[in-house]
Amino acid sequence: MNGCINKAINYLGLLGLMVTGYAVAGDYPSPVPLKSGAQAAMTTVKPNDDSYRVAYMPPATEFAYYLAIGEGINQVADSTKTDVFMLAPQSGADINAQMGMIQDVLTQDIDAIVFSTHDEHAAEPLIKRAVDKGIAVIMINSDIPDFPTPIHGVVGYAQRNGTQNLAKWVEKQVGEGEVSVGIIEGQPGYHSTERVGGFLEGIKGANNINVVSSIDGKWNVEGGNTAAMDMLQSHPDIKLIFAANDNMAIGAGYAAKALGRRDITILGNDGDTAGLEEIASNNITATVNTSPYEMGQIAMRVVLDTLNGKFEGGWIETPTTIVHEDNVVDVLRNPDALYPKPSREY
């Protein structure tokens, strides 16, 4: 998977509302300690030699988001003697397949696992085995402070804060009129709980914004389309849809278009290239851009520091911004920071 990737451009500056700030230590943010009992001892890490082999294990290949993280990982790995391979099921709903793949990886000579899962409890015993074997274990695309079994590090954004700030942003856009809201959740688990929870907290003080429907969209475009179609037909008064990721937001956009509903505000979360282009085309209103390519770069640096005995553990917070019609073109004009690249020049 180690292809040649262009350097990522850090566009944390003025690309819209900054959701999170952090102090940088070296080439990634200073770590925040995990909850008591959640931090694996860094001394348990026992690399085979100085030519490292790393397994990148996202929940599915159906999500371009995780491919973008993988390309960021590769960009850093390519400049070292590190071999990275990706192993993931096609569907994010195929938990059993992901567990089988982790089990298989544990029989191989690897030095580190970078993983994300939609079922923390299913992964728990396998991740424990990895830590016990001396494999460095870094969780990606998360801010979970207490994974069910101790791990060495977590790299990801503050999910609840991101969607809470998105809710505050949209609250200003909709004004004072009554707004009925539909929520498209992801599959049950930490990610969906945090993202939906943050959005609900963000609109809590707005008496004119009321949730009338909440449906599982299974994290993908088809699921988002089905969920949005169902809720818009059952609740034609809905004027705003929040989806817990960009894939489901894209699906909601398709449903709104099919129903001739151009009056609906649609919000996502991730910063997928496809989602950003849907904002530029006015099919989606806004998203929390979590910069997955950069997240992958940071994760790989953390892995290398862990294997070299330089990382002390904890959560590394990665950046987020709110992207909407006023700043989306600025983001799309930096294609080297995106994967896949935009479909055209902006």
Summarize the structure.
The protein has helices at 64-77, 95-105, 120-132, 159-174, 190-203, 221-234, 246-258, 273-280, 292-307, 328-332; strands at residues 24-25, 28-29, 53-57, 83-86, 112-115, 136-140, 153-156, 179-185, 209-216, 238-243, 265-270, 286-289, 314-317, 321-324. With 346 residues, the protein is an alpha/beta fold. It is elongated, with a radius of gyration of 20 Å.
Chart the SSEs and their pairings:
Layout: E1 24-25, E2 28-29, E3 53-57, H1 64-77, E4 83-86, H2 95-105, E5 112-115, H3 120-132, E6 136-140, E7 153-156, H4 159-174, E8 179-185, H5 190-203, E9 209-216, H6 221-234, E10 238-243, H7 246-258, E11 265-270, H8 273-280, E12 286-289, H9 292-307, E13 314-317, E14 321-324, H10 328-332
Parallel strand pairs: 3-4, 3-5, 5-6, 6-7, 7-13, 8-9, 8-10, 10-11, 11-12
Antiparallel strand pairs: 1-2, 12-14
Helix pairs in contact: 1-9, 2-3, 4-5, 6-7
Descriptive overview:
It is a single chain. With 346 residues, the protein is an alpha/beta fold. The protein folds into 2 domains: 24-30 and 37-156 and 292-318, Response regulator (Rossmann fold), CATH 3.40.50; 160-289, Response regulator (Rossmann fold, 3-Layer(aba) Sandwich). Helices cover 36% and strands 19% of the residues. The protein has helices at 64-77, 95-105, 120-132, 159-174, 190-203, 221-234, 246-258, 273-280, 292-307, 328-332; strands spanning 24-25, 28-29, 53-57, 83-86, 112-115, 136-140, 153-156, 179-185, 209-216, 238-243, 265-270, 286-289, 314-317, 321-324. Helix 1 crosses helix 9, helix 4 runs parallel beside helix 5 and helix 6 (221-234) packs across helix 7 (246-258). The protein is elongated and about 60 Å long. The two termini are 28 Å apart. The model is unreliable at 1-26 (pLDDT under 50).
